[in-house]
Structure formats: structure tokens, C-alpha cells
Amino acid sequence: MRGWLDAGLPEVAVAVADVQRAGRGRSGRTWQAPPGAALLLSVGFRPHGLVALHGWRLGAVVALAMIDAAEDAAGLRERTLWLKWPNDLVALGPDRQPRKLAGVLGETAFDAAGDIASAVVGIGVNADWAAAGFPAELADAMTSLREVALGRPIDRDALLEGFLARLEPRYVALREGRFDVGGWSVRQLTTGRQVEVEVAEERLVGTAVGVDPESGALRLDDPGTGVREIDSGDVVRCRVV
């Protein structure tokens, strides 16, 4: 996708794959998905006028469009699925702990003014993937739409169509300077809960009190230092009672 954008392909460009053997995640992690199990796609944008501070919102509108489409495609009630900062879509397992359903990863290129010239946002959704086929080392930490829907088959084409239909108005609004802060905030699983956050070589523990609508940073109330904003890191534990 990056090569296509660099070669002049206009936005919005979408590339879809059926299988993933060497997917790239945060911090150099890899991910694999067998044929037919996941919806794997990259979306290319040319968001003229979007400043670097708000670049994270591209991934956010992709995540919000997908979470709505996924609930619809699987016949789930609203807010069955959640966002876990910074870039995961999750559902609660039988133990009431978050299990990863999808991941979002973006990369950007900048123009001379420092604004975003182009961006690629990738998302992989565990869709019609039965638990019996989950990788053994990840089975306790992941889930799929099929499992959350109690075995209901998931039509990946319908999921893709629902996602694209929901992405367009969200992206148009973003290009016009509007972002659904309320929708983004209410979907955050971490807000109001005890979390453990990995930041570089450090582990921070505290209460997540929200996400900053300008920077996308996680706001963490640390008992020792008070509220601080975390721009980059991973929530590795979230206590859901």
C-alpha cells in the first residue's frame, strides 16, 4: 500500500488479503492468520491539512468504523466490543478479562509543512475463526467474532462492506475538522479501571481516567505522581470487575 501511495494512487485506497503469514504489529511483533479466518486490510489516505498532532485520529476512525461494522455483522448488541488503548479491539472473555479481537497499526509520511501527506492504516480482525484453530500460545488472550457470537458464521464480505460504509462519513468528517470524541471516549474499556501500562522499560500502575481528545494520550492517575499523560505504550493488564 505504501508503494502504491508513493506511486500516486489516489485515496481512499483499500487492499484486502485472505491470509497473513508475516504481519507486522507494534514493537516488531508478528502475526499470522490462516486462510478464511480473518479480515485483513490496509487503507491508504491522503488527509490534506491533517496536522501531525491529530494523525492518530486516522487509526481511531478506522477502529470506530470497524467496531460498529463488527457488532452488526456478528449480530451483537452495541458495546459488546471495546477499544483498548492504544490500538486494539477487544471483547470480554468468560473470565471478564479483555481478549484481543483486532489490532490497528498506522504509518505516516509528512509534507514540508509537517502535516500528514499520506498514511496507511492496517487492521486485522479475527472474524470467522473458530477457537479450536487459535494458536496455542495465544488462545487465552485472543478471540474472534465467531466466538463472541457463540459460533455464528461471520461473512467477511459483509463485514468489509459494513466497514467501508461506516468509514466514509467518519473520514469525511475528519477531513472537515470534526472528530467523534464522544464515540471514541465511550468505547474505551480502560476508563475508570485499574490498569498496568508498559512504557519502554517501565511498568506503570494506576487508574485510567480517559484519553486526551487532542493527542490521543492515555490519562493515567498514578497514586504517587498524580495524573499523567502517556503518548506511547501498551496496556498490558486491565482489571474488569
How do you describe this structure in short?
It is built from five helices and 13 strands.
Written description of the protein model:
This protein is of the alpha+beta class and about 240 residues long. It has 2 domains: about 180 residues, BirA Bifunctional Protein, domain 2 (2-Layer Sandwich); about 45 residues, SH3 type barrels, CATH 2.30.30.100. It contains 5 helices and 13 strands. A 6-stranded antiparallel sheet has the order 1-4-8-7-6-5. α2 packs antiparallel against α4. The longest helix is centred in the last third of the chain and has 20 residues. The chain is globular, with a radius of gyration of 17 Å. About 35% of the residues are buried. The model has no long low-confidence stretch (mean pLDDT about 90).
User: H/E order of the elements?
Assistant: HEEEEHEEEEHHHEEEEE
**Any idea how many domains?**
2
Number of helices: 5
Mean pLDDT: 91
What is the C-alpha radius of gyration, as a whole number of Å? 17 Å
Which strands sit side by side, in order, in the main sheet?
Answer: 1-4-8-7-6-5
Gross geometry: globular
Low-pLDDT stretches are none
Fold topology:
Layout: H1 2-6, E1 13-17, E2 20-24, E3 30-33, E4 38-45, H2 56-73, E5 81-84, E6 88-92, E7 98-110, E8 116-126, H3 145-148, H4 156-175, H5 181-186, E9 194-199, E10 202-211, E11 218-222, E12 226-230, E13 234-238
Antiparallel strand pairs: 1-4, 2-3, 4-8, 5-6, 6-7, 7-8, 9-10, 9-13, 10-11, 11-12
Helix pairs in contact: 2-4
